[in-house]
Amino acid sequence: HVQLVESGGGLVQAGGSLRLSCAASGYTNERWCLGWFRQAPGQEREGVAVIFTGENKADYADSVKGRFTISQDNARVTLYLQMDSLRPEDTAMYYCARARWSGPGLSLDSTDFAVWGQGTQVTVS
User: Fold this and answer.
1) Over pLDDT 90: what percentage of the chain?
2) What tens digit of pLDDT does each residue of 57-66 get?
3) Which end of the chain is more exposed for a tag (fewer CB within 10 A), N or C?
């Protein structure tokens, strides 16, 4: 079955950087929309960055544009989120997810995603 496993979270000072990774397994080489979402305590889960695999088309939340970069490895089995110029308001649990559909299309709406990892905590002090 499909599995997504995140890693790379941690504690970092404001202005610092982290790179999150998401290892994907258990599904075919069809092209999908994959994304990073985050949820802070007491807040809704929000879309951070999404990418359409195979074409490297991406979209970002306004709050992270210019600071975060989503990418994938050539084999399309690992998804990354490079986070630079981190701010305290970036503190949250970060999740990677796969969309409900295969094929083109980008969405930052968490309801469009059906497969989720367990999350990795990012804390910016």
Assistant:
1) 74
2) 899 999 999 9
3) N
Query: From CA 38, how far away is CA 45, in angstroms rounded?
Result: 6
Query: 121: which strand partners?
Result: 93
Please tell me the distance from the alpha carbon of residue 14 to that of residue 30, in angstroms, as a whole number.
38
d(CA 88, CA 105): 31
